[in-house]
Each structure stands twice: as structure tokens, then as C-alpha cells.
Write a structure and sequence with these properties.
Blueprint: E1 7-9, E2 15-17, H1 19-30, H2 37-55, H3 62-85, H4 109-116
Antiparallel strand pairs: 1-2
Length: 117
């Protein structure tokens, strides 16, 4: 089993398949050519799932953590274009710690959210 198909285990023994990270990485790779707002929203919801698992105590192997950060950087790099093409996706409905929903706030949104946490 590859590292990206291992399991995340939370403090309550709840297990989340890391396939959500694989899915997020793949979805982010497709975002530059994406035509549907629903797919952009699905990508951001997938990131919510990962964030929530980590907040509940799930731990990532270093390789997966690196891949997650790379995907986040890719998301940030296409953020301005996504906001231009899909403005209705980026409305203030999520807490700032879910920075991916606030790409309309500019390229520093991730750093600002991490500092505030």
C-alpha cells in the first residue's frame, strides 16, 4: 500500500481514508481548466474534509503533508483566476481558518489564517 493510500487515525479511533488527499491533489491539478463552479466547490469541500480530520488529531506522514502543502500552493497560484471565473464560490460563509474559501482576499490569505489560528 502506497503512503497516499494509508489511513489517517483520529484520537477517537475514527479513520479517514487518505484518498481524500489524493482526491484533493487531483482536483487541484484540474482546476486551471475547470469549467464548472460545482467542481471548484467540490475541491474546496474536499479541503474542508482534510482540515477537519487534521483538526480532530489526525496525523499525516511527512510525504503526505508535503503533497498537501504542494496542492495548497497550486490552489493559491490559481486563486485569482478562480475568483475571476467563479466569483459566487468565494463568499464569506466559512471561518477564516478555512482560507481556501477566501481566495478572493488575496494571495496572503493562507498565511493570515495560519497566523490567526
Amino acid at each position: 500500500m502506497s503512503p497516499t493510500h494509508s489511513l489517517l487515525s483520529g484520537p477517537n479511533g475514527a479513520r479517514n481514508s487518505v484518498s481524500s488527499i489524493d482526491r484533493y491533489i487531483a482536483l487541484v491539478d484540474y482546476l486551471p481548466g475547470e469549467e464548472e463552479a460545482e467542481e471548484v466547490m467540490y475541491t474546496l469541500l474536499c479541503r474542508d474534509e482534510i482540515h477537519d480530520a487534521l483538526r480532530e488529531g489526525a496525523e499525516l506522514p511527512t510525504l503526505l503533508e508535503t503533497k498537501l502543502h504542494e496542492a495548497d500552493r497550486k490552489l493559491l497560484s490559481v486563486g485569482k483566476d478562480l475568483v475571476r471565473r467563479f466569483p459566487d464560490v468565494f463568499i464569506d460563509r466559512a471561518p477564516r481558518e478555512y482560507w481556501w474559501w477566501h481566495l478572493d482576499k488575496g494571495p496572503k490569505v493562507r498565511e493570515e489564517a495560519e497566523r490567526a489560528a
